[in-house]
Design brief:
The chain has 1 helix and 3 strands; from the N terminus they run E-E-E-H. The chain has 107 residues and is of the alpha+beta class. It is elongated and about 65 Å long.
Length: 107
């Protein structure tokens, strides 16, 4: 396993930023993701062990009526499909909150 930044990939080699070249027949490239959560600095939101915002099943954070979706609360799998899915769950949570506020709990 080589864990170095890649400068370029050519046929038949991979050039790394450390000026190392490796001749390979195949391999896997895994991108490194980092999520910018600097916008929450100064707030005391509950964070998980990955530094992401902790939410309930509907995306509500530790403050009432504030929700988080997508990469800001997930621990892994920074993908568009995940962001869309968690956005849909947040929308359900907001509808649920508004319905309970206007019509009472159905429980």
């Amino acid at each position: 396993m080589i864990e170095q930044p890649i400068q370029k990939i050519t046929n038949p080699g991979v050039y790394f930023t450390s000026d190392t070249k490796k001749i390979i027949d195949g391999g896997f490239v895994m991108p490194t993701f980092s999520v910018n959560t600097s916008f929450i600095q100064g707030f005391s939101f509950a964070l998980n062990e990955f530094g992401r915002i902790t939410t309930d099943g509907f995306g509500q954070i530790s403050y009432p009526r504030i929700y988080a979706a997508g990469d800001s609360h997930a621990a892994f799998a920074e993908q568009l499909v995940h962001a869309a899915s968690s956005g849909s769950k947040v929308a359900s949570g907001i509808v649920r909150e508004v319905a309970f506020a206007n019509f009472g709990s159905f429980e």
